[in-house]
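testing teh design pipeline on a random one, pls ignore if ur not involved
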């Protein structure tokens, strides 16, 4: 059977071409689905619903402004009209704006509301957004769900992300209705029970590798310890006792003896808790006594500890492969330059090559991680926050490492006129322009004032709209132009 979700859904408005829409004929017997809000989530959801054959009506505060962004088959109208026409309504606005929908209370009574909202941070105490929404609309049946599905997944279809949709509600009928919509859109509903589970569902997309924290911390501490230890032994000691400068060993040779040490100790840490558990059982003579909490946590972290050990071992293999390559390159270089080994070892060229290789290997390691997590089967097992942490934060780290790698490759050649054949700069200079622009742009976005403003905008804040609401009507009309530049 061809994958329903992989078909192109809808041509853009204004394409003018023929529409092949045989798989998206509205089914008049199925419920009319309303969506409040016209943001990213709403647009992707509307497309997927229309493609699944639903009649869709979208409610906006300013319908004319966003009508062109939705498929023609979806009606974009006022919030009140959408609430009136729809049998089931997705509330695709941020939770802090739920209260602005209170005027619709009467209209929404008796209808199913699907709360798709996520919070900004993990909420352990409650109440959840869905519970608050249920308090605002006591006459409606609130279902929590779809918050773990990103707008991207909705747009691409369930084939390119997690297929599971976690649902909970106090009304079984409302939940069953949302389940059937899930099925028809190609997703797999997972019943999480009553609305009290909504806090757990809302926290799901906010976790950032909770089970990896301890193993990664452990790996970092071990790395720092062994690195310093090897530094004292291989670099500081010859420098103090024999006045021999071996600082050039820091980027590769010291790292390369540190990595296997960490890998081995981490591997031992995988098996140690099992031994301790056995000793405890022998000691107490029963298997029914609970292990202490620290041992429980340790036992459940064994997979992550093992994978960290594997990472260090793999990096060690790459570094070790580089060593003979680097030595032969040094040898050829030495023969060419007719220099003594002593001279060569302190040459800045040695530093350049060591750093060049080391940073390059790190960049490759990070890029491999990005590649692996972009596979749908892997991406489906991590939440959106974890996915964007790897693809965005670690992605920028990879870009930074790769840029530094190229800088070490070029070294000072950018300033050597002889390298400019026909006045053309060396290739690496051209290559560096775009990464520099991107990295500087990213650094600018991290400035607290810029980051704060961007965060607000991404949560739905609009300068003009905000100012209009803050000012009395007359001032607003007269002064928007002036104040909008503030
Ligand atoms: P968005 O692009 O900022 O859209 C939010 C929409 O809310 C606006 O377009 C606006 O539409 C509407 N709105 C209604 N009252 C508002 C008010 N008082 N102030 C500001 N906006 C108001 O956000 P989104 O990314 O679509 O997210 C919408 C909801 O889906 C959020 O609760 C979010 O947590 C959840 N969600 C999003 C994703 C995702 O990938 N984006 C994934 C899972 C869950 P009108 O101006 O037309 O009224």
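output:
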């Amino acid at each position: 059977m061809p994958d329903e979700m992989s078909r192109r859904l809808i041509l853009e408005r204004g394409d003018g071409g023929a529409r092949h829409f045989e798989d998206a004929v509205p089914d008049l017997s199925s419920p009319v689905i309303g969506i409040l809000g016209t943001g990213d989530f709403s647009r992707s959801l509307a497309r997927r619903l229309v493609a699944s054959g639903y009649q869709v009506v979208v409610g906006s505060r300013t319908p004319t402004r966003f009508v062109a962004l939705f498929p023609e088959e979806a009606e974009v109208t006022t919030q009140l009209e959408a609430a009136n026409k729809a049998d089931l309504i997705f509330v695709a606005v941020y939770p802090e704006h739920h209260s602005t929908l209170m005027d619709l209370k009467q209209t929404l009574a008796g209808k199913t509301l699907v709360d798709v909202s996520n919070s900004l941070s993990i909420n352990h105490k409650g109440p959840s957004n869905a519970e608050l929404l249920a308090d605002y609309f006591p006459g409606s049946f609130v279902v929590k769900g779809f918050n773990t599905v990103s707008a991207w997944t909705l747009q691409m279809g369930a084939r390119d992300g997690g297929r599971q949709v976690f649902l909970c509600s106090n009304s079984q009928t409302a939940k069953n209705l949302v389940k059937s919509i899930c099925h028809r859109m190609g997703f797999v509903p997972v019943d999480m029970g009553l609305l009290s589970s909504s806090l757990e569902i809302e926290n799901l997309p906010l976790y950032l590798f909770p089970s990896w924290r301890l193993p990664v911390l452990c790996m970092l501490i071990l790395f720092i310890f062994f690195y310093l230890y090897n530094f004292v032994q291989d670099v500081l000691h010859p420098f103090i006792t024999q006045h021999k400068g071996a600082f050039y060993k820091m980027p590769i040779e010291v790292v390369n003896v540190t990595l296997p040490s960490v890998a081995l100790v981490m591997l031992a840490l995988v098996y140690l808790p099992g031994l301790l558990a056995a000793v405890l059982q022998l000691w107490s003579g029963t298997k029914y006594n609970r292990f202490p909490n620290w041992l429980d946590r340790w036992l459940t972290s064994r997979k992550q500890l093992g994978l960290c050990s594997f990472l260090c071992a793999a990096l060690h293999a790459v570094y070790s492969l580089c060593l003979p390559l680097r030595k032969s390159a040094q040898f050829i270089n030495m023969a060419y330059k007719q220099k003594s080994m002593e001279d060569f070892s302190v040459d800045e060229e040695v530093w350049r090559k060591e750093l060049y290789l080391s940073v390059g290997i790190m960049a490759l390691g990070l890029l491999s991680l990005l590649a692996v997590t972009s596979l749908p089967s892997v991406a489906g097992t991590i939440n959106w926050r974890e996915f964007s942490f790897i693809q965005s934060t670690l992605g920028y780290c990879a870009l930074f490492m790769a840029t530094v790698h190229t800088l070490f490759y070029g070294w000072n050649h950018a300033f050597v006129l002889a390298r400019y054949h026909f006045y053309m700069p060396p290739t690496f200079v051209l290559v560096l322009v775009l990464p520099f622009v991107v990295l500087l742009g990213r650094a600018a976005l991290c400035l607290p004032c810029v980051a704060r403003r961007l965060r607000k905008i991404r949560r739905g804040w609009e300068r003009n709209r905000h100012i209009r609401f803050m000012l009395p009507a007359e001032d607003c009309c007269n002064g928007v132009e002036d104040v909008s530049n503030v």
